[in-house]
Design brief:
The chain is α+β, with helices and mostly antiparallel strands and about 375 residues long. The chain folds into two domains: about 220 residues, tRNA-splicing ligase RtcB, CATH 3.90.1860; about 160 residues, no CATH class. About 35% of the residues lie in helices and about 20% in strands. Strands 1, 2, 3, 4, 8, 9, 11 and 12 form an eight-stranded mixed sheet that branches. A two-stranded antiparallel sheet has the order 5-6. A two-stranded antiparallel ribbon has the order 7-10. Strand 5 and strand 6 form a beta hairpin. Helix 2 packs across helix 9.
Length: about 375
């Protein structure tokens, strides 16, 4: 997830909404199998997945301050490209700067006064009434998926024979963290994390291009500054209190996101005194949220939800909703959406997801993550 600020207001952007969404749809390829404009050899890609966001900024696809506002400063140290299969490289080397499919999206949103819950923090972080912001959700595309597939098979081959581990579901295949297989996967997973940082950094570069062209001002003048970027679906070594003692543990957040209370070393310096920014995507019809890590997150290994969660399967959604009609209905309500396919649009209908407000109320009231502001959708690009 990445959230980007602007100096623009709703009045500035409303007349240009269709132009912006159409251009973003054109510049940020979406859908299964989409490829990006960054052309690399496979050997160059192997360097990219080790260097992460640093590579993107050095090659003109971002600003130094973007890295300072990215989890891990945009680079998971310890990534080892030699632990990644040729098949994963083949799937990923031409996908940098692409959105993908499923629940991945790029959305133009507005900050409404009545939705600002923490005025002090909102102001400190650069948010204001009627401000336009951009949020997007995507990861390492088929590259990360292939790494997971490869190591699932590796673990199945050694789990019982070598480590005497038995499981009920093959999808839970595993190996001890300190084992050769476990460490190889950890290093390969970091390559996927780095690919995701680069992918989102290049997409941000494209967003800046589109806004700059549309408003005929440079990105700096338009205030297109990154607020924060956080990776989902990754494991990290962290120190947490377990049974009264501080221990180093592996925290694996699948369908979860980091939510660190103030002072934690994992938080970039700019936010360390506040708590980590937490970006929670809702449905394209209802809105998303910016939260801050709460004190009670120490009880959940500094983790919170990473979205509103589905209420029905994708198949159910396709059977219940017509994508073409949904697009028309959303436009009538002031949300302009472009999608690669109507079936994919139907899968992401608001009815397919839980009530985002109820989900956020739950984590807010529990003290895991605290509300800063809700963000209301205006324009959306879907895979």
């Amino acid at each position: 997830m990445r959230l980007v600020l602007t100096n623009l207001t709703l009045n500035d952007v409303k007349p240009q909404m269709k132009t912006l969404v159409d251009k973003l749809f054109d510049r940020v390829p979406a859908g299964v199998g989409s490829t990006g404009f960054v052309k690399l050899t496979k050997d160059q890609f192997r360097k990219v997945i080790v260097d992460g966001g640093e590579w993107a900024v050095k090659n003109g696809y971002g600003w130094d301050e973007d890295l300072a506002r990215t989890e891990l400063n945009g680079r998971a140290d310890g990534a080892d490209a030699s632990k990644v299969s040729a098949k994963a490289i083949e799937r990923g080397f031409n996908q940098i700067g692409t959105l993908g499919s499923g629940n991945h999206y790029l959305e133009i949103q507005v900050v409404k006064k009545e939705n600002i819950a923490d005025e002090r923090l909102a102001k400190k972080w650069g948010l204001f009434e009627n401000q336009i912001v951009i949020m997007f959700h995507c990861g390492s595309r088929g590259f990360g998926h292939q790494i997971g597939t490869d190591y699932l098979q590796t673990f199945l081959e050694v789990m019982e024979s070598k480590y005497k581990i038995k499981i009920l579901d093959r999808e839970l295949a595993c190996a001890p963290f300190s084992s050769p297989e476990g460490q190889d996967y950890f290093k390969a997973m970091k390559c996927a994390v780095n690919m995701s940082f680069v992918n989102r950094q290049v997409i941000l570069h494209r967003i800046r291009e589109v806004f700059s062209e549309t408003f005929k001002q440079d990105a700096e003048s338009l205030g297109l500054r990154q607020l924060f970027d956080v990776a989902h679906n990754r494991a990290s070594l962290e120190k947490h209190k377990v049974d009264g003692a501080v221990r180093e543990v592996v925290v694996h957040r699948k369908g979860a996101t980091g939510s660190y209370p103030a002072g934690r070393e994992e938080i970039p310096k700019e936010f360390r005194g506040d708590g980590s920014p937490v970006i929670i995507g809702g449905s394209m019809e209802t809105g998303s949220y910016l939260l801050v890590g709460g004190e009670k997150a120490v009880e959940t290994f500094c983790s919170t939800c990473h979205g509103s969660g589905r209420t029905m399967s994708r198949t159910q959604a396709r059977n219940m909703v017509r994508g073409d009609q949904l697009q028309k209905d959303m436009e009538a309500r002031g949300i302009y959406v472009k999608s690669v396919s109507f079936s994919g649009l139907a899968e992401e209908s608001g009815a397919s997801y839980k009530d985002i407000d109820e989900v956020i109320n739950s984590v807010h009231n529990a003290g895991i993550s605290k509300r800063v502001t809700k963000l209301v959708p205006l324009g959306n690009v879907k895979g």
